[in-house]
Design brief:
alpha/beta, four-stranded mixed beta sheet, 12 strands, globular, disordered C terminus
């Protein structure tokens, strides 16, 4: 991963992007969230899943050796957040992305080789629990963030919202075609998770949390 140089040209006041609803929901205004400083340029993306464990993977091809990755980035996702945030909040975006890709030659969205089994020179892993997704033409970006579990736990136990802090983790750059392939691959995973996900309404101390993007006028 690369890291952006610190911006020291001006001081800026960043308003708190987190607000708490009367129903104890955590709302995030993405326009106030600081972009991740770490940047990963991905050629390929895929998802893995087994009950209770989900990972989004991104890889950089080794241009000098076939069927090998130079680097591989694993972003581990709480299963409930993949369903309630990554998937639920991207339904309109997913369909608009599909419509955009359909305008291009079919070869642009051809299925990739089974890169999940390729070896990598370097591996890195992080936990994330929400994201912002965008594309401009064929360039796409996913910004991944985390609200640490300790902050959520303290909030749910009546400790106030002071510990609810957003940690920018990584910005992943990739093509719109690869992003569509990833989102299409996530769909059956979401359906599997919905089949075993505990019902809403658990007591606060049992820990279900839904992070929602704040809707702005």
């Amino acid at each position: 991963m690369e890291r952006r140089p610190a911006d020291r040209t001006e001081s800026r006041l960043v308003e708190d992007p987190i607000t708490v609803g009367l129903d104890k929901s955590i709302n995030i205004d993405l326009t106030r969230v600081v972009a991740p400083a770490n940047i990963y340029d991905a050629d390929v993306a895929w998802v893995t899943h087994q009950p209770g464990r989900v990972s989004l993977f991104f890889g950089k091809r080794d241009l000098d050796q076939e069927a090998r990755l130079r680097t591989r980035l694993e972003l581990r996702y709480p299963a409930e957040n993949l369903v309630h945030h990554f998937w639920s909040n991207s339904r309109g975006f997913h369909e608009r992305l599909r419509a955009f890709v359909s305008l291009w030659p079919e070869s642009a969205n051809t299925a990739q080789a089974p890169v999940a089994k390729w070896e990598a020179d370097k591996d890195h892993s992080e936990w994330v629990n929400f994201e912002a997704i965008a594309h401009a033409g064929t360039e796409a970006t996913l910004d991944f963030y985390s609200i640490p579990a300790v902050g959520i736990a303290r909030f749910r136990r009546g400790g106030g919202s002071a510990s609810l802090t957003i940690v920018p983790v990584v910005r992943v750059n990739l093509t719109a075609f690869e992003l569509l392939r990833l989102m299409d691959a996530v769909e059956p995973v979401v359906k599997e998770i919905e089949g075993y996900l505990p019902k809403k309404g658990l007591p606060p101390d049992e820990g279900e949390i839904v992070v929602e993007e704040q809707k702005n006028a």
